């Protein structure tokens, strides 16, 4: 039985916008200017809203468990990454010049750092929002706040998007505790080679393998990943139609294929992990996804996200 991808998949670069068929090429320039202004507003307001929320909740020792918070609070950093990387692609990152140092400081405030005795070393990484930064307040309060401290941990997708945002903003990563992040990353890999998102448990599949590889690549430290085990997981995820699914016996999907190929690309193992015949068949599957744009699996409409994932897979695979 082929396991289909879930109806809503939280990719590290999840579907936020879909192309409109009525868009005109002649409006491209004005739309780009509008996009720059809108993206700037997204970054600035995310930063301000997050700090406002922190002030509201910061003095409350009886803070709710982070796992019960609404998802927009958990993943605010990833939305900021979409906006920051969008500005970078539009060659307009300079619009953040005045606020850049504040945004960098905000991102660093999301870092889960190891305690003095190192008891939480396997929980380190980046949170999605300062709203769930409960460790500092709990350490300053009494033992009633012990539970939120134990619940405080990084999220692999937030760690990836946080580091990528810092790099785009020109930060030198000097304030990143690289050893702690590598330790936290190592704790997320499962026995089948896949990764879960958080140490307390979550879904595990190729999306988070990609995040772990991107983190390792940015830090230039692969000690947080068992590479042979990861390669085994990727190979075993090759489906009957020669592309990649979410795991064993799962249907091939454009986004997951990108995650696997990008992981191999960052490792420098693309040609050694897949033989020539496998790579050729995978490329054929990608090419067959093209209509006006690309769709991610048979009988799905094409859109901008699939076009990015499949197009990037073709690019990384050296297809011209």
What does this entry look like structurally?
The protein is an all-alpha fold and 320 residues long. It has helices at 28-57, 71-74, 76-89, 100-108, 135-140, 146-151, 156-168, 178-186, 206-219, 227-236, 254-267, 270-273, 276-287, 304-316; strands at residues 111-112, 125-126, 195-196, 204-205. The strands form 2 sheets. It has a two-stranded antiparallel sheet. Strands 3-4 form a two-stranded antiparallel ribbon. Strand 3 (195-196) and strand 4 (204-205) form a beta hairpin. Helix 1 packs antiparallel against helix 3, helix 3 runs parallel beside helix 7 (156-168) and helix 11 (254-267) packs parallel to helix 14. The chain starts with 27 loop residues before the first helix and ends with a helix. Residues 1-34, 51-72 and 137-148 have low confidence and may be disordered.
Summarize the structure.
This protein has 320 residues and is an all-alpha fold. It is built from 14 helices and four strands. The strands form two sheets. Strands 1-2 form a two-stranded antiparallel ribbon. A two-stranded antiparallel sheet has the order 3-4.
Beta-strand content: under 5%
Judging from the principal axes of the Cα atoms, what is the shape? globular
How would you write the strand order of the largest sheet?
Answer: 1-2
Tally of DSSP helical segments: 14
> How many strand segments?
4
Q: Averaged pLDDT, please? A: 77
Helix content: 40-55%
Amino-to-carboxy terminus distance: 35 Å
Structural class: mainly alpha
Radius of gyration: 20 Å
Largest sheet: 2 strands, antiparallel
Detail the poorly predicted runs.
Answer: 1-34, 51-72, 137-148
* Order of H and E elements: HHHHEEHHHHEEHHHHHH
